[in-house]
Design goal:
The strands form two sheets. Strands 4, 5, 6, 7, 8, 9, 10 and 11 form an eight-stranded antiparallel beta sheet that branches. The chain is globular. The longest helix has 15 residues. It has 362 residues and is of the alpha+beta class. Helices cover 24% and strands 21% of the residues. The protein is built from nine helices and eleven strands. The protein folds into two domains: 107 residues, Uridine Diphospho-n-acetylenolpyruvylglucosamine Reductase, domain 3 (2-Layer Sandwich), CATH 3.30.465; 213 residues, Vanillyl-alcohol Oxidase, Chain A, domain 3, CATH 3.40.462.20.
Length: 362
């Protein structure tokens, strides 16, 4: 769809990588490279077709079954089998986007500078500050290969997409470029090319993750994050990223879906690779330790698309929204025919089995 839409000067609010599943991404909210300008991707849903628990094929929108339509926009699924979606597209032809990379030893200073920079940029900029351990060779996945300087190394990286002309984007990037990065890939690219910006592997890779939503990112939080991430006594993590939130993601509007907004300034997402089952427990503990290190600056809320294990799905919603979701579930699937989503049972139990929006690894 991205290529077809681009022929008409349009783009969807897609995930941060090409391999993000469309429906799971939309049902869980959706934070992509234009999120600070356009809000959650779920808000671009205009209609959803799904097979419900009684076997009926239903088309829902703002006028037809509005409660179910509300729940599908960010509620996490578990209400039916989605067979089609109708999406609002945005008039985006190109984006000034890319990555800046520095030696991993500069992580603390770069993340502090990036945090300060985030406070100055307009909503047209969505960015990520991350520590990433790149594979020794680029996969043959159809994307441009990793730059040779990144292969097999660990770096602190700032990635960003700017919905502004190149000259204005370059002005905005000047404070980060003043830090003398080893690599600068920023350029004006076609909107569909944003799928390669995060440099995720395209082939399936076993991984586990954990995350924390932060109200703020003071120096102490960065110090704690760096210490937990760059623990020399433990295996390196595939990626630890801090996503810039705010902008349109924080603006409540009439008619929004179950998720609506993300009430946080940043999201920290840690990802560890799991090459085989024997390493799963250690990897889960590794990402949990990173999350615990920054938890004192969080608010306890969760983002469904970053959840990959069973937990209380109520943590992703305000109380009134969660109660409404329970009522919709009870009305449309009282026998719990659908248990695979990240929702909850009709009896009110609140387990969330896992998410659909990869960060550093799929």
């Amino acid at each position: 769809m991205a290529a077809a839409a681009a022929e008409h000067g349009l783009a969807a609010h897609a995930g941060a990588a090409d391999d993000v599943g469309v429906v799971g991404y939309l049902l869980g909210g959706g934070i992509g490279w234009v999120a600070r300008r356009h809000g959650l991707a779920a808000e671009d849903l205009l209609a959803v077709e799904l097979v419900t628990a009684d076997g009926s094929l239903v088309r829902v929108d703002a006028e037809n079954e509005p409660d179910l339509f509300w729940a599908l926009r960010g509620g996490g699924g578990g209400l039916g089998v989605v067979t089609a979606v109708e999406l609002r597209l945005h008039p985006i032809v190109s984006v000034h986007a890319g990555a800046l990379a520095w030696p991993v030893e500069r992580t603390r200073d770069v993340l502090r500078a990036w945090r300060d920079w985030c406070e100055t940029v307009p909503d047209e900029v969505t960015s990520v500050g991350r520590v990433v351990c790149f594979p020794p060779a680029a996969p043959a996945d159809g994307h441009d290969p990793l730059p040779a300087r990144l292969q097999g190394g660990s770096f602190v990286v700032v990635e960003a997409a700017c919905l502004a002309p190149a000259a204005r984007s370059d002005e905005l990037l000047a404070p980060l470029r003043a830090l003398a990065p080893l690599l600068d890939t920023f350029a004006t690219i076609a909107a569909p090319a944003l799928g390669g910006l995060h440099m995720d592997p395209s082939d399936p890779v076993g991984a586990v993750s954990d995350h924390v939503l932060l109200d703020r990112l003071p120096d102490d939080a960065i110090d704690a994050l760096v210490a937990a991430t760059l623990d020399a006594a433990r295996p390196p993590l595939a990626s630890v990223e801090v996503r810039q939130l705010g902008g349109a993601l924080a603006v409540a509007r009439d008619g929004q879906g179950a998720q609506g907004t993300i009430d946080a300034a940043f999201a920290v997402l840690a990802v560890a690779l799991v090459p085989d089952a024997t390493g799963a427990a250690a990897a889960e503990q590794r990402v949990a330790d990173v999350a615990a290190a920054v938890a004192p600056w969080g608010h306890g809320r969760r983002y469904l698309n970053f959840v990959d294990r069973a937990e209380d799905s109520a943590l992703a919603f305000h109380d009134h929204s969660f109660r409404r979701l329970q009522a919709v579930k009870a009305a449309w699937d009282p026998q719990d025919v659908f248990l695979a989503g990240r929702g909850f049972a009709a009896d009110g139990s609140r387990s969330s089995p896992g998410g659909h929006e990869p960060g550093g690894a799929p």
